[in-house]
Amino acid sequence: MRARVLISLLVGLALAAPVGAAAHVRVQPEEAPADSYTVLRVNVPNESPELTTTRVEVRFPPGFGYALYQPVRGWSAQVKMTKASRSAISGQATPARVGRVIWTARDRAAEIQPEEFVDFPVAVQIPSTVGERLTFRALQTYSDGEVARWVGGPESQSPAPQVLVTAPAAEPDAATAETDAAEGDSGGGSDGLAIAALIVAILGLAAGGAALAGLVQARRADGKTDEGSEMATQTKIISGTDFITVATEDYERAAKFYGETLGLEFGKRWGSMPAGEFETGNLTIALMQTDAFNIEFRPNNLPIEFHVDDFEAAKAELESRGVEFKGDTLDSGVCHQAFFNDPDGNALAIHHRYAPPEA
Fold this sequence. Notes:
Strand 7 (85-86) and strand 8 form a beta hairpin. 23% of the residues are buried. Helices cover 22% and strands 33% of the residues. The longest helix is centred in the middle third of the chain and has 18 residues, at 205-222. It has helices spanning 2-11, 13-16, 174-183, 188-203, 205-222, 251-261, 311-320, and strands at residues 26-28, 31-33, 37-45, 53-59, 68-69, 75-83, 85-86, 93-94, 98-105, 117-125, 133-135, 137-142, 147-150, 162-166, 230-231, 243-248, 265-269, 275-279, 284-289, 304-307, 326-331, 335-341, 347-353. It is of the alpha+beta class. The chain is globular.
């Protein structure tokens, strides 16, 4: 009986997931055991009273070897893997992993309407580090092109969804397992079997498991991934970059430039200090007014390169906002670059690679 009740509850997840009081994009459940096979639900409410949600992108933290999405009616889905690599320093190989998952509404009828939400289920294996808070940065695109960026800290106005990795449940001893088997579906062991069976039935893992394992193994062996994959930058010691620091002599002036002129999402201010964080989508920029930290001001003369999808459109838009580019556009044969400075003289650039990754 318990197993049948559990199955009924799990089947209703896509219909009964609650929307948070603040209507933020969430990943549920918000806790999951280490190394467990789990179905995560990306819960996307539509906050706009007039616009619809047309696209959802979730950027995964390191540690996920695969993501299997459950089809959502009216929406297409893409799993973008990072590229397998090998560290030039340690020789340590980094296998391909899940970089992001993108859902796009196929037509207007499927778009998330005002006062509605949609769940996007993904089956994954949770990483093994107990106590780690996995941060899933989410970008929600509305029908007018505006993007809500759920990439900030837990206390920010636009917090990124997080999942806490908990300790795995204790495995039953042999005597308990025998008792559960004898009692049929009244025992906890059958609940676990029911969950596993349900996940397999919903996601079709039984048919695709062997092929998936072969694909992951092949990627690890030859480093090849799907076309359009992103580049992983992990080494054995360094697992990522939390933020880079940009010096300023006037924090308020710099914050206006990075927030309004460049249009970066404000993350948080460092208490009452003249310093704060701005999100670029995959990297945080921390602005610091150096005299408040007893540091000599020196502008950076090597550029931070911001990725843009449409180079000419981005350049024209920034020029309309008062940005003055230095010299002509640089065409390297694989990418376009255009250079400019922030109000403190720090070197910046916009960058778009048009050549294939192997070029």
